[in-house]
Each structure stands twice: as C-alpha cells, then as structure tokens.
Write a structure and sequence with these properties.
Length: about 140
C-alpha cells in the first residue's frame, strides 16, 4: 500500500470516528463488532459525502485490525451507527476472526541498539577528527 493510499484511509477513518463517535474508535482497544450489513447503513447515512471506494478501503482496514478481530468473540454485542446493540457475534464469525488473527504476522520487535561508535555531538566529532589528523601526521613523520 502506498503512503498516499494509507493517508487517505487514515483520513477516512478519522472522518468516520468524528461523524459516528459511538461506532468508530481510533484507539484499537475500544473497537467493537459492527452489525452485519453495517456498510449499507453507512452508505445511506453518508449520502456520498465521502468517496465510496475510500469508505470501503477504510472499513476493510478497520475490520481487519487485530483489535477489531479480538473483539469478535462468541456472543459479543454488535453495534450500529449510533453504538446501539444490533445483534451478536456468531460462533462462525468468532472462529473466522481467530483464524485471521493466527495468520497475522507478529508485531515487529524493537530494533537492537546500534553497536557503532557513540555520537556525542559536534564537539566530539571535531575532537575525533583532530585526533585522526594528529595520528596521520605522526604516522607520516615516522613512516
């Protein structure tokens, strides 16, 4: 996915969070299962305000997130655009979410600390350069 496409999707999710604050949440841990057919209700409510292709891409990313999939547990309440109860998660949907979670790659581990020289700023670089010049001068004189 390109950076531009990702930016459009993020902006669309932000717009949905602002417009429907009881149904969409930016913070993953707050995400709740959406009702079946949610996309139909969403399209009717938006009335073309947001490009439908962008809405589909945003919904796909939103519902494919690990946080959303973790919320899909058997019997969990699904919500509508207003955040009101609108059904429950079936065992089949919960099982699908678990399979998808198991296929997702693990979160990247933090990068190890650099093993190169410590950079203490400009004064340290100047001191190192002066030392190197002095060593080269000494080597040239003795060599």
């Amino acid at each position: 996915m390109t950076n531009e496409k990702r930016s459009i999707i993020d902006a669309t999710i932000d717009a949905l969070c602002e417009r429907f604050p009881r149904a969409f949440f930016r913070k993953g841990a707050k995400r709740r299962p959406l009702k079946l057919g949610f996309h139909i209700d969403l399209a009717a409510a938006l009335k073309g305000e947001i490009n439908s292709r962008d809405v589909r891409a945003a919904l796909k990313m939103y519902t494919a997130s690990p946080w959303y999939r973790r919320a899909l547990t058997v019997g969990a309440v699904r919500i509508d655009l207003n955040g009101d109860p609108a059904g429950e998660v079936s065992p089949a949907h919960a099982a699908f979410a678990q399979r998808m979670l198991s296929k997702q790659p693990p979160a990247p581990s933090p990068k190890p600390a650099a093993t190169g020289p410590v950079r203490d700023g400009l004064s340290a670089l100047k001191a190192a350069a002066a030392l190197r010049r002095q060593q080269q001068t000494t080597t040239t004189l003795t060599g």
